[in-house]
Amino acid sequence: MAFYQASAQKQKPKFLTEPLISNIYTADPSAHVFNGKIYIYPSHDIDAGIPENDNGDHFAMRDYHILSMDYIGGKVTDHGVAIDIKDIPWAGRQLWAPDAAYKNGTYFLYFPVKDKKDVFHIGVATSKNPAGPFKAQPQPIPGSFSIDPAVFTDTDGSSYMYFGGIWGGQLQRWATGKYDANGSKTDLGHDNEPALSCKVVKMSKDMMHFDGKVKDVVILDKQGKPLLTKDHDHRFFEGSWMHKYKGKYYFSYSTGDTHYLEYAIGDKPFGPFTYAGMLMKPVQGWTTHHSIVEFKGKWYIFYHDTELSGKTHLRNIKVTELKHNADGTIQTIDPFKAS
Ligand code: FUB
């Protein structure tokens, strides 16, 4: 008996941090500082009873709740439903990872959702309050596709959207520039070609349109060559984020099937970016998705795992400090405590 207890204790993971809330399941946390407070824009995971598959059909979310905190470690407020899928005229199913931005008195909520033909596009909704409620535009952002929008506003006031995700995120279906439902250019079968890239585009002044062409976010290895499709440990999969630190642009992302959060550094918002290292080792759960924000002189990474449920599609968000080294690299975070 004593032996059994000892080994059971040894197997129980010791998580680095605790879930921020437990009244609902949350994932894909995009954190921003608005009016001196931290606002978190996460996915709201639900159990829709849909079996797990590689398309991610089990992620069948139907609304968003926005959360806020006065400070890291403080009480987390759940502001309730900010927008429901039934209030998005063009939406079919699956409200995935959102993001938010602010300009000229208006807050913008960006969200990926499948349209009524089951094709992912990115929509935008507006509010005068960072916690919503948000009102959706009647159509998706023209020219948008795939998932996981991350909107970065540079110090000169220009905003850029990074977006895309392969496999269930459908980015491979747009590999030729046009939609192809049978698009087969996934990371399977094209091992020695450059990996599919995340996309980046400048936002228009009204923050509701793309201004100019959608470009590839090129990630180079240390020899200056684009990362290859076969490099599953380093190539982009989904969940991009951008932060600026000491004048450099840090593009970070998930490697999906290998479950790492990685980052690459560049001199401009459009890149190119040079692979620089791992942000975080794999969490418990299949997906890994983060955001990075500065608050009162410290940097934080918001992320998720499945500590509360043990189920892939029922996740919970967390936060921990992120540290830049003197040379600009970032200290890799282990989401588990050493036992
Ligand atoms: O939450 C649904 C999807 O799972 C997100 O869009 C991906 O980034 C992954 O976290």
Structural account:
The chain is mainly beta. It has a single domain (25-322), classed as 5 Propeller (Tachylectin-2, Chain A). The chain contains one helix and 21 strands. The strands form five sheets. Strands 5, 6, 7, 8 and 9 form a five-stranded antiparallel sheet that branches. It has a five-stranded mixed sheet with strand order 14-18-17-16-15, with no helix packed on it. Strands 1-2-3-4 form a four-stranded antiparallel sheet, with no helix packed on it. The longest helix has 10 residues, at 2-11. The protein is globular, with a radius of gyration of 19 Å. Beta-L-arabinofuranose binds next to strand 1 and strand 15. The site of beta-L-arabinofuranose (FUB) has 13 residues, from strand 1 and strand 15.
CATH architecture: 5 Propeller
Amino- and carboxy-terminal Cα gap: 21 Å
Q: Give helix and strand order, one letter per element, not per position.
A: HEEEEEEEEEEEEEEEEEEEEE
Give the class-level CATH name.
Answer: Mainly Beta
Tell me the name of the CATH homologous superfamily: Glycosyl hydrolase domain, family 43
Total number of helices:
1
CATH topology: Tachylectin-2, Chain A
Approximate shape: globular
Radius of gyration: 19 Å
Percent of residues in helices comes to: under 10%
Q: Kindly give the count of domains.
A: 1
Structural class: mainly beta
DSSP E strands, number: 21
Task: Name the average pLDDT.
Answer: 95
Low-confidence stretches: 1-9
Q: How would a crystallographer describe the biggest sheet?
A: 5 strands, antiparallel
